[in-house]
Amino acid sequence: MRISWHVGLGRDLGLAFWAMTFFEATFGAFTSIWPLWIEDRGAPIAMVGIVLGSAGFVRPFVIGPSSWLTERFDRKWLLIVARSLGIAGLLVAAFAGSWPILFITVVLNGMGELVFPVLQTYIAERSTENRARAFSLIVNVGPSFALIVTPLISGLLIAQWGMQSAFFLASFTSLVSILFLSRMDFSTLPDDDDTDTTSARSYGAAFKHGEIRSLFVVHGLTILSLAIGVTLVPIFLNDVRGLPPGLISTLGAGAAVGTVLFGLWVARSSRLSANPLTAAAIACGAISVGLLIFAFGDSLGWIALAFFLRGGMFATWAMILARMGELAPAHLRSRAFAVVEILGGSAISFGPIIASVLYGIDPGIPIIVGAFLGGLMAIRLGWMQRHSPTTITSPASAD
Which residues of 194-224 are buried (b: 16+ CB within 10 A; e: fewer)? Predict the structure, then answer.
């Protein structure tokens, strides 16, 4: 079977595939040691949570205006500038001498995340036949292959030159993502199904749709629950289990393996593709099991398995995005994806604040709490799929 550069998605989605792949490669290069780097710069554990959580305050001010900005400025150059600011933030982190400087990194990285709601809208517009498959391949499979490779490379670099080298690797992969982004054509986006020119294009209109609003809520709560459990796992493994940072970064590749295999399963399963929230429930349940293993398993084999199951976090997010692509009408799609990004990203940011408080009580508590809440959200996601309509065409039908 012939394998093409666009992995069977066509040129437009193929470029999005590689852009997203290298965006996540950037994330994978430094995320496993990010809490450790903050701590290394002199921050106490409570301030580690504050620095991590501060991104949640920045995100709404960056992602919120994304629809307005992309309707008025050239999308390609807007996203190139945004990602360039993200690179600047990574370099600031690499040369930071103390932890307060890392707030600059948080702000600049937040600006770089403008790309995500725009590309999610791009994917939804160009994948009218099987959105779950497209989101699974572009948001799960491709990026997760990168997340397998970059933690391994990062781990080797860290072992040789220290944690600072992870940020240089992240800067390089982000630069490569900009190269793919520069080849994308945003000027001819199809808008065939956006025939309603009278409906309001606003965040308020998106929240008036009952099914969209429900998906906003469950997405935010699900990611918050999982973020409480996973964010301080690297510090837990370093402080309690005694694992070195380089090994933790390397084991982090297991999460990407889990995400890849789950994404391929969804892409090949017509049942899961047709029921993305069922797929999200399975992935959410898997990471909840993984969190329990982190909390109670002390052997390297069990910890590796837990990292594998941790891949369910990004798989859950991707399947919620796929469902949003099905539900949201075209005139609200960009704002719906922006809200999903704000809520999910803010949940990832605020989760560490809660986790750091719980960690101060006992290092294992935030992991156990995350596992329990994640299990509840998995049940809720499955219930929503069983009781949700196929599409939304108007505010009245949504309510």
Answer: eeeeeeebebebbebbebbebbbebbbbbbb
